[in-house]
Specification:
Elements (H helix, E strand, L loop, with lengths): L10 H17 L15 E2 L1 H8 L3 H10 L5 E3 L3 E5 H12 L1
Antiparallel strand pairs: 1-3, 2-3
């Protein structure tokens, strides 16, 4: 790891150094590439879904349990929802 003395760097040099470090980490797969919000198959967090539907986490959990909305587990403690499924469910419930 390089030692950097911040007081000797200009703002532009610091920005360039941060960008360079980020690109290097991304090339080594140390930084995850999350899908962009407009890509198909975008996975939403519980917070995003609850905010979009204007419901509480408790309601979201209940809807997941009864199958009103599908949840997908990512690892042991993470749950995500497919955006297209959430929007489809939202459209069908508004009719």
């Amino acid at each position: 790891m390089r030692k950097i003395i911040l007081e000797e760097l200009s703002t532009d040099d610091l920005k360039a150094l941060i960008m360079e470090t980020f690109i290097e980490a991304q090339a080594k797969n140390q930084v995850p590439n999350h899908p962009k919000p407009d890509e198909d198959g975008y996975l939403m967090t519980r917070k995003e879904v609850a905010s979009l539907l204007k419901i509480s986490y408790v309601t979201l959990n209940e809807w997941t349990k009864i199958g009103k909305i599908n949840a997908y587990s990512l690892g042991k403690n993470r749950v995500r929802y497919k955006r297209d499924e959430v929007l489809k469910m939202l459209r069908s419930s508004c009719r």
